[in-house]
Amino acid sequence: MGYLKIFFGNTAMLIAVAYLANLIYKNTISNASVGIKKVSWVLLAIFAGWISTLFGYRLGEHVIFDLRFVPLIISTLAYPHPFILVLIGIGTGLTRLTFGVNEAAMAGTINLSILGFVCAALSYWVRRSNLCMVNKGLIVILVINVMNAINIMVFGVIPAPEYIKEIMPITFPAGLILSVLFSLIIRDFQLGLLRNGQIERANEQLSAQTEELHKNKIELEERADQLMMASQFKSEFLANMSHELRTPLNSIINLSQLIEDNDNSLTEAEMREYAAIIRRSGEELLMIIGDILDLSKVEAGRLDIINEDLSVSEIPEILAMQFAVTAKQKELEFNIDMEKNVPQMIHSDPQRIQQILRNLLSNAFKFTKSGHVALRIRQEERGERAIVKQWIVFEVEDSGIGIAPEKHAMIFEAFQQADRTISRKYGGTGLGLSISNDLARLLGGFITLESEEGKGSCFSLYLPLEIIEE
């Protein structure tokens, strides 16, 4: 009965150690790295074996019977890694020497070291076997208990016949049954840990999904606000467009009516003036319709770019003729300057380049009451890291009303201007910059803006430079 009492006591101590280890694990190293967890497991298994020896059954002065091999069984099932199992076996065996260095202690050290290597061999089978965990556990328990009995018979200090007849009939079945009992309890602990881990992972996933849903909600709300603003801007655009279309149309209709009803009361000078107004109104109407068509083509991806040789020196001459009258009427200084190192010929779409520059210059004159408007053409190296490209730059600078920094990006969007009152005060559809930005991108370039409110603006059109040899 002494063996049974001690073995039950060993089992109780091992359960207590396992319970305390479970608490320590959950509150300290549950989030530690895999390496720390493995080291902790090795130390725990060796400590459990030492506790089992401490409360073992002492037969005589040096011989101790206990269940120190049980942590090896659990380790074989929980951590089937050969090196770890060898470490646990040798470490547990060496703890036997802490109770005195003698023949029995040496036999115990050899026994546990051999069991460590046996468990290492069994770990290969545990990892590769298709049996269920219960069957694997029963086989490992049986093999280790049998090997433990064989080692005691071979290396133990008790004569083999005495051990087989008097001790083994009690210790072997008791060790077998208690090993199964302890394994079942540890298995229950392990399942509990797995369930807790699954619950924690599920909570983390739910938290992540909740956070993602919150982000999606914010994005949807922002998108809804953008759509609402876009709808509002389009409504304002349509209202403004109605005004912009009706003004030249009314001029054309009214003056045409006057000419049609003319009973020779109109002088030749008046007729020429009316004809000039009708022509300008038609040109304004054509420009508005052209902007709308260009925008729709860009959005549909059907705007064609026709690249050909373009004389850079002709651009200032054309723009000077187009805007000289406007500059004179508004009493603004209009300067055009081209640096000497700018190539005479480039390969691009002349029509689209002129369209962009006309839009930029039109805006510059529109929003400048006094001062100057300037067009500068220069060459620049620009790039990031090791990639540096040559660009030809068309800068349109004015001393007009300027644009606040927070509105720089907004003015390049369709239907939008820096201030909603601008369209009413200065006129225009708000499409010019959006179309210019899209055209610049189709030409392989881009437009930059430097501006402060009340201090004028500088729009720069960058186009990739491909020099044509003359």
Q: Describe it for me?
A:
By secondary structure, the protein is an alpha+beta fold. Helices cover 65% and strands 13% of the residues. The chain has 12 helices and 9 strands. The protein has helices spanning 2-29, 34-54, 70-78, 82-95, 103-128, 133-155, 160-260, 268-300, 314-329, 350-366, 422-426, 432-442; strands at residues 57-59, 63-65, 308-311, 333-338, 345-348, 372-384, 387-398, 446-451, 457-464. The strands form 3 sheets. It has a 5-stranded mixed beta sheet with strand order 4-6-7-9-8. It has a two-stranded antiparallel ribbon with strand order 1-2. It has a two-stranded antiparallel ribbon with strand order 3-5. A hairpin with a 5-residue loop joins strand 8 and strand 9. Helix 1 packs antiparallel against helix 2 and helix 1 runs parallel beside helix 7. It is rod-shaped and about 145 Å long. It starts with a helix and ends in a 6-residue tail after the last strand. The relative contact order is 0.06. The model has no long low-confidence stretch (mean pLDDT 80).
